[in-house]
## 1
Amino acid sequence: MSARNARPAHDDDVPSGELVRLQAPVGQGEAMARWIALARRGRLPHGFLVTGPRGSGKSTAMAWFAAALLCPSDLDTEAPCGVCRTCSQVANHSHADVHVLELARDQAEKKMWGKERSFYAITVDQVRRAQETLQRHAVLGRARVLCIEDADSLSTEAQNALLKTLEEPGQATFLLLEAVQPDRLLPTVHSRLQRLALLPLPEPMLRTHLQHRIPQHAARFDAAVRVGRGSLGACMLACTEQVVQVHDLVLELLREHDRLRPLAMARAVLAGHRERHEQLDAARTFLWLLRSEVAAARDALAVDAAGTYVGPPAEPWTTWIERTLEAERDLELQINPDQVLVACLVQFVR
Ligand SMILES: [Zn+2]
């Protein structure tokens, strides 16, 4: 049986000629530097959890940790060298000692990896396969690493299965997990993990990096920084064409919410997306942008307020944020994206 889910990823994941370089996480300061230095000595705790909001650089951090565990450079004692063959393989998901467990992300992957992968949960079967692979797989280099992306999507059964590996990880074996909502992990799992929360980046740092990476989208930076809320990845995402389209709908909603037609708005958000996972993605993006814009509006109000603002009881922002969060939870419960959006948007009319 092939280890489809706990794949040692292969070179064919990345089209040849498009190798990416390993990137160091930005703006993460002392705490991360200390853990990375421990990883260089092979003394990272065997279960390690990186947390942070969407786009905050969790995947970048995970790759940096994996490279820190594996990079053979003796000259680089405090961080991985970032340029050797090992570091490059880690960055391109092609290192034989790094196994990745993740949600199905798109239709192509779903076909490639089999039907048992879900868009909603990492299943117990996926975890068991990963464990078999880990046991079978000899350590080729300095360590072997199991990366679990979206660990807050591990089913309860999957988490219970994972406990075995967390309790007896085996020689030079490290589990790196990342999650947006770590409180969805079982306390028994949580207690066996060391945790690093990524820091939000200050606005000037975000702008500097955006200017450096995507200068052609400078006109979008104000909006991107507003919804990105300290996460560089989220800011970059906010500059992509698809997200800009959804963002325009969000702004329209907030400008004219008293004239909002929930059904029409939900249709506009999902327009052009026929596959369920595409609809799910569009709905998630819409709710994320909506919540971020509402939060930014509320924050701006609080700042203006100094001394004068007393908080009228009719202030809608907090309620709206709660409604949006509820809708985001409903999406994860596999309720239809159009139903979730309509039910949420109805609350904005009034
Ligand atoms: Zn290296």
## 2
Amino acid sequence: MSKASSPTTTKISSFMLMIIFIVLALSLTAIILAINAWYTPGQELTAGYLLLIGVLGVAMSTYILFQTKKRMLRLKIEAPSITTTIECRKCDFKSIREFQRGDYIFKEVEPCQKCNVNMLITAIYREVKERKRERFPF
Ligand SMILES: [Zn+2]
């Protein structure tokens, strides 16, 4: 597979990841504070609230983390593939393969399987796929 990931996706996901880890850290702090409050007389209610916030925070951030991971995996699989069409000038043999770094139109590539004449790249295009179902769940 070619590593043609767009820089914007990486930026967004690392930003998301940062927020998730901040939420996770805050939630863990809340849990620690809850434990502390639990051993402080008269702070049982506060401990309960803090624990609730902490558990909710951990649950939420792990959920988002898994969703983001799933989405990123899906994006990786469905990343628009760039296709290169190679044609033989002599026998019109056509071959289609994934775009490789350094490909350009009218570049001479490997010889034809049938007549051993160097083939030419005749087209490079991006395959457009439907991405309507790729919405974020929230
Ligand atoms: Zn040929």
